[in-house]
Design a protein that fits this description.
The protein is mainly β and about 950 residues long. The chain is about 15% helix and about 45% strand.
C-alpha cells in the first residue's frame, strides 16, 4: 500500500501555473452527468466531470478558447470560454446511442457498430456499471453468443460457437492489445491478469473466426478489453465489495473484493496510471461422487468405484478370483484448502511527445493468486503468478507494440497425483492390493462371507490393517494404515507430496514459461483517398520451461516462433451505402507449413436514414497446435500424454517393467525402454484391444494410424441484419455456418511393450504383440492428432431491445447451435462441442427509475447438453439463472452503493462436468468516484 500512497502524493503534489475554469454538465432533466469529457479544441488538454457533474480544467492555452463537451449517450456540444471567471454550465441533449456506438475490433478501424461487417457484441460504460454480476467480467455471460465454462469461482472460460472445454484454445482475449493467454497452457485464465472494474472503458466481442486480422487462435472468437486513458479519466477511485456465497458442498462463506485506481495527467504531454485489486472467497467445491467406472456410488457395493471428484481411486488392478479393484481415494475438498485469492496490479506511463495524437505507453501488469483449473486432471493453482510488460507507440493511423508474458506456477499441484502419492506414502500399491486379495479370498474360504462382505473385510484390512478374529492369522502388513484427512499424518504427507515435482512421489508442477510478441499496423487513409487500406504484421516466440514436469524440456527450455502479415482494403460504393471489406493474412509457424486466411464482407445500408444494415461475410480461420499438443510429455499413471512434434517423440523416454509371464514365456528382459515413437507408430486402437481381450481373436485388432498433429482450419459463412427502428427498437440477427477441416483431436492408443503391431497374424513380430497384450505388457498413451472426419456447425442468433416505458429497457436474445459429423469417418473422434442447442437471455433495467436510483435484472436459460473432455463426460442439465442488482447514487459523497445477487432463488447448477456446482452469491459494493 505504501507504493500507492506515494503515487497518490506524487499525483497531487505537482502543479503548474495555468488558466483554470470550472463548471458543470447536466442532462435535459437537470441531472448531473458524471464522466463527461471536456477538451480544448485544437489542444490536447482535457478533463472529465466528477460524480456530481462538476469539473475543473487547467490549461496553458491562452484565452479565449473553445471547449468540447461530450458524454456517452448525449450529443456533443462546444462552448466558447473568454474568461477564467466564466462559470461554464453545460446542458447536453440525449442522443440515440444504438445508432452511433463506435467499435474498432471488427475491422481494426473505427466504425459504427450498426455497420460492422461481422457479428459483434459490446459493453460500454453504462452496461459495465449496471451489470448484475459481482464483476464486469462475470457479466459477460449475459451477452448474446456467450456461454461460460466455470472451473472455479475465479476462473471462467468464455465459449462462443462451441468446441470449447475449460481450456478454450480456440478463443483469444486481448487486454489493451496484449494476449492474456498462458504461455504454457495457451488459453486464457479468466480475468486473472485482466483489468479492474474501475479501469475498464469498454469491451468488444467478436464471436466468430477472426484469423484474417488477428492470426492464429482467433478461431472461434476474440475478446477485447480496453482500459481508460489517464489523460481523459483522472482522479482516484475506490471500491469495496462484501458478500457471501452459498453452496450445498461448501456452505455459506464470505466474499471480499477491493480495488483502487489512481490516474493523473501532469501536463498534456505526460500522465501516469495505477490500479490494484484484491479478491478472496471460498471455492465452489467440486463434490460429484458419480462412478466413472459404472456401478453404484461408493466402495460398499462397487469394489472398483472411481468417484469423479474423489482421487486416488483411479489406481486399479485386476486380481484373479476377486475382480477389478480400486484403492480408496480422497475427496477433492480434502486435498486443497478451497480458498480463492486474486491480486491484480498494473502501472503505466503515458507520453504524448508531439502536437499530434502520437502516444507512447509503457505498461506493467501482474496477476497472482490461487484458483482451480480443470484439464486432464484437476489442478490446484496455488500462488500462481503471471506478469506482462509492454511498450507501445500509437497514433491516429498506426500502432506498434512489443510485450512479454512471464508466468510462474508457484506452489501449484495436481490433486489426482496428490491423492495417489499420499496413499502410497502410507502403503505401496503392490502391498495394498496384496493385502486386499489375501483378506478377500481367506474371508470367503474361512468365514463363508459373500462377495460384498469379503470386499468390505478386504478393504478394511488393506486400508487400516484390521482383520476379523477368524482370520487374524494373516501376517500384519509392513505399510501404515490409511492417513485420515485432517490428521497430522495426512497433513504431513500431503505437504511433502505437493512440494515434490517428481510425479512418481509428488504432485507439484513447475512452470516458468514465457511468451514474446510484437505487432504493428498502419492505416493509409490520409495518403490513399479512394479506399481505406491497412497493412500489419506480428511476430511471436514461445519459451517452454517446466523443468520436465509438463513438457519434455528435461535438458533446458524449448522454444519456437510464429510470424504473420496481413493487408485489408475497405471501399464504399453506391452513394456510400455498400461497404466492401477484403482482408488477406499469411501466417507461418516454425513447425508447420504457412496458412493463408482471406476474409470478404459486404455491408449494405438500406432505407432513407440508412438504418437497415445487411451484412454478408466469408472468412477462414486456423489454429496452430498448442505448446502442449506439440511438446507435452506427462506420465499421468494410467496413461501418458505425448505431444506430436517430431523431436518430442524421441525426447520422451520411459522404462517399463515386464510381467513375469512376459519374461518367462515371451523371453523378454525385466525392463524395456519406451518412447513417443511407440505411441504414434507402434500401437493399436483402444477399442480393438478391448475387443481382442473379449474374443482372443487377433482379427479384432486394428493398427492405430496416428498422424502427427497439424493446424486445423475453419471456413465461416455468415449473414446478418442490424437496425434501430424509430430510435427505440434495436434488432440484431445473424446466421452462421462453419466447416472445419483437420479438426484437432486427442486419441488414446495402446502400445505393446514388445513386438511390432500389424494385421499379419503369421508374422512372428506381430505374434509377440498378442503375447504382450495377453500378459498385460502394454502402455496406454494419449496422442495429439487431427480427425479425418469433416466437422460442421450451424447456428443463428436473434437479439432485440426496446424501451418499453420511459427509460425502462427490455432486452431479449436467443441463440441456436448444433454441430454435425459422420462418426463412421472416425469412430474414435470425440467432438467436445460442449454447448447447449438452445439459449435464451433477457434483461430489464432502468438507470434512472427515480433520481439517483437504478436497477437491472438478468435471466438466462439453456437446454441440457453433452459435456465431453479428457477429465470426464456427462450431461449438463437444463438450468435457469436469475441475477439482479439495485444501485443508488450519493452525489455529495461521489459514491454509488450497489446491492446485487446471482442465481436468485435457484439451486446449485453446473456448467462443467467435474467442476464445482455454482451456488448463490449476494454482494454489496461501495464505489467512490466511479
Amino acid at each position: 500500500m505504501r507504493v500507492y500512497l506515494l503515487i497518490m502524493l506524487l499525483f497531487s503534489g505537482i502543479s503548474f501555473a495555468q488558466n483554470t475554469i470550472t463548471g458543470s454538465v447536466t442532462d435535459g432533466n437537470k441531472q448531473s452527468i458524471p464522466g463527461a469529457n471536456i477538451s480544448i479544441v485544437g489542444d490536447r488538454s482535457g478533463t472529465s466531470t466528477d460524480f456530481d457533474g462538476t469539473f475543473k480544467l487547467s490549461t496553458a492555452v491562452k484565452l479565449p478558447f473553445t471547449i468540447k463537451v461530450s458524454a456517452v449517450g448525449f450529443e456533443t456540444k462546444t462552448i466558447s470560454v473568454t474568461s477564467v471567471s466564466q462559470k461554464v454550465n453545460v446542458t447536453l441533449k440525449d442522443e440515440e446511442t444504438k445508432l452511433n456506438e463506435i467499435v474498432v475490433s471488427a475491422s481494426r478501424t473505427p466504425e459504427r457498430v450498426i455497420e460492422s461487417p461481422v457479428t459483434i457484441e459490446r459493453m460500454g460504460i453504462q452496461e459495465i456499471r449496471s451489470t448484475t454480476a459481482p464483476t464486469f467480467y462475470d457479466g459477460l455471460e449475459n451477452l448474446k453468443e456467450v456461454n461460460f465454462n466455470t472451473s472455479s469461482i475465479s476462473f471462467k472460460s468464455i465459449n462462443t460457437r462451441g468446441f470449447a472445454s475449460v481450456a478454450n484454445t480456440r478463443f483469444m482475449q486481448l487486454v489493451d492489445g496484449m494476449d492474456n493467454s498462458s504461455p504454457a497452457l495457451n488459453f486464457v485464465l479468466g480475468n486473472l491478469i485482466g483489468i479492474s472494474d474501475l479501469d475498464v472503458a469498454n469491451v468488444e466481442l467478436l464471436p466468430g473466426a477472426s484469423s484474417a486480422l488477428y492470426g492464429a487462435n482467433a478461431f472461434n472468437g476474440i475478446l477485447f478489453m480496453n482500459s481508460k486513458s489517464p489523460f481523459t479519466d483522472e482522479g482516484i477511485s475506490v471500491y469495496y465489495k462484501y458478500g457471501q456465497t452459498t453452496q450445498k458442498a461448501a456452505g455459506t462463506n464470505d466474499y471480499n473484493d477491493f480495488g483502487i485506481r489512481a490516474a493523473k495527467a501532469f501536463t498534456k504531454h505526460f500522465a501516469l496510471k495505477a490500479n490494484f485489486t484484491y479478491m478472496e472467497a471460498t471455492e465452489w467445491i467440486a463434490a460429484d461422487t458419480r462412478s466413472m467406472t459404472g456401478g453404484s456410488v461408493g466402495h460398499a457395493n462397487n469394489q472398483n468405484y472411481d468417484g469423479l471428484n474423489i482421487y486416488g481411486d483411479e489406481v486399479t488392478t485386476f486380481i484373479p478370483n476377486v475382480g477389478q479393484v480400486s484403492r480408496t481415494g480422497y475427496r477433492e475438498q480434502d486435498l486443497t484448502d478451497n480458498k480463492v485469492k486474486n491480486v491484480k496490479a498494473d502501472f503505466s506511463a503515458h507520453i504524448k511527445p508531439f502536437a499530434d495524437d502520437t502516444e507512447i505507453i509503457m505498461q506493467y501488469k501482474i496477476g497472482l493468486g490461487s484458483t482451480i483449473y480443470q484439464g486432464a486432471n484437476r489442478y490446484a493453482l496455488k500462488d500462481f503468478m503471471m506478469q506482462q510488460g509492454k511498450i507501445e507507440v500509437k497514433g491516429k493511423n498506426f500502432f506498434a507494440r512489443v510485450y512479454a508474458t512471464d508466468e510462474d506456477a508457484g506452489n501449484s499441484y495436481d490433486m489426482r497425483f496428490a491423492a495417489w502419492n499420499v496413499n502410497r506414502a502410507a502403503k505401496s500399491d503392490q502391498e495394498w492390493f496384496t493385502n486386499y486379495a489375501t483378506a478377500y479370498q481367506l474371508s470367503g474360504a474361512v468365514m463363508g462371507t459373500n462377495a460384498n462382505e469379503s470386499a468390505a473385510i478386504a478393504r478394511n484390512f488393506a486400508d487400516y490393517n484390521v482383520l476379523p478374529a477368524a482370520i487374524s492369522f494373516i501376517p500384519k502388513p509392513t505399510g501404515s494404515a490409511r492417513f485420515e484427512p485432517g490428521s497430522a499424518q495426512f497433513n504431513s504427507a500431503l505437504a511433502k507430496v505437493i512440494s515434490n515435482p517428481d510425479l512418481t512421489q509428488g504432485a507439484k508442477f513447475i512452470d516458468h514459461s514465457k511468451l514474446y510478441h510484437s505487432d504493428v499496423n498502419y492505416n493509409f487513409r490520409d495518403m490513399i483517398k479512394w479506399a481505406e487500406v491497412q497493412v500489419g504484421g506480428s511476430w511471436r516466440e514461445y519459451v517452454m520451461d517446466s523443468e520436465g514436469t509438463i513438457f519434455t524440456d528435461y535438458n533446458g527450455p524449448i522454444s519456437y516462433r510464429e510470424y504473420g502479415a496481413y493487408g485489408q482494403l475497405t471501399k464504399k460504393f453506391l452513394d456510400d451505402r455498400l461497404k466492401f471489406t477484403g482482408s488477406l493474412r499469411y501466417d507461418k509457424s516454425q513447425n508447420f507449413d504457412g496458412n493463408v486466411s482471406p476474409r470478404v464482407s459486404f455491408v449494405y445500408s438500406a432505407g432513407e436514414s440508412r438504418r437497415h444494415n445487411f451484412r454478408l461475410s466469408y472468412q477462414t480461420g486456423f489454429r496452430n497446435p498448442t505448446t502442449q499438443d506439440q511438446y507435452i510429455g506427462l506420465d499421468l499413471g494410467p496413461f501418458a500424454l505425448i505431444g506430436s512434434a517430431p523431436e518430442n517423440l524421441d525426447r520422451f523416454q520411459e522404462t517399463v517393467n515386464v510381467s513375469a509371464a512376459g519374461q518367462a514365456i515371451a523371453g523378454q528382459p525385466a525392463t524395456i525402454g519406451m518412447s513417443g515413437q511407440n505411441a504414434y507408430h507402434n500401437a493399436y486402437t483402444v477399442a480393438s484391444v478391448q475387443a481382442f481381450a473379449a474374443s482372443a481373436n487377433p482379427g479384432d485388432l486394428q493398427v492405430a494410424n496416428i498422424g502427427l498433429v497439424k493446424p486445423e482450419q475453419v471456413q465461416a459463412f455468415e449473414v446478418g441484419y442490424r437496425s434501430v427502428v424509430q430510435n427505440d427498437l434495436s434488432i440484431d440477427l445473424n446466421v452462421y455456418y462453419n466447416i472445419y477441416n483437420d479438426f484437432m483431436n486427442t486419441a488414446r492408443v495402446i502400445s505393446p511393450y514388445y513386438g511390432t503391431v500389424g494385421t499379419d497374424s503369421s508374422n512372428p513380430a506381430v505374434q509377440q504383440t498378442y503375447q504382450a497384450l495377453a500378459f498385460g505388457d502394454r502402455r496406454v498413451y494419449q496422442v495429439y492428432t487431427n480427425t479425418t472426419a469433416q466437422v460442421s456447425s450451424l447456428g443463428f442468433g436473434v437479439g432485440v431491445s426496446k424501451k418499453i416505458y420511459k427509460d425502462f429497457e427490455l432486452g431479449v436474445n436467443y441463440n441456436y447451435a448444433q454441430f454435425e459429423f459422420n462418426q463412421a469417418d472416425d469412430p474414435s473422434f470425440i467432438a467436445g462441442f460442449n454447448t447447449p442447442k438452445h439459449r435464451i437471455k433477457a434483461s430489464l433495467g432502468n438507470a434512472k427509475v427515480i433520481k439517483n436510483l437504478g436497477f437491472n435484472v438478468n435471466v438466462r436459460w439453456n437446454t441440457e447438453y453433452l459435456w465431453q473432455s479428457s477429465f470426464g463426460d456427462g450431461i449438463v442439465p437444463e438450468n435457469t439463472v436469475l441475477d439482479a442488482q439495485v444501485n443508488y447514487a450519493f452525489p455529495k459523497l461521489k459514491s454509488v452503493i450497489k446491492v446485487g445477487a446471482t442465481n436468485l432463488f435457484g439451486s446449485d447448477y453446473i456448467q462443467v462436468i467435474g467442476a464445482g456446482a455454482i451456488g448463490q452469491q449476494w454482494f454489496v459494493s461501495w464505489t467512490i468516484n466511479p
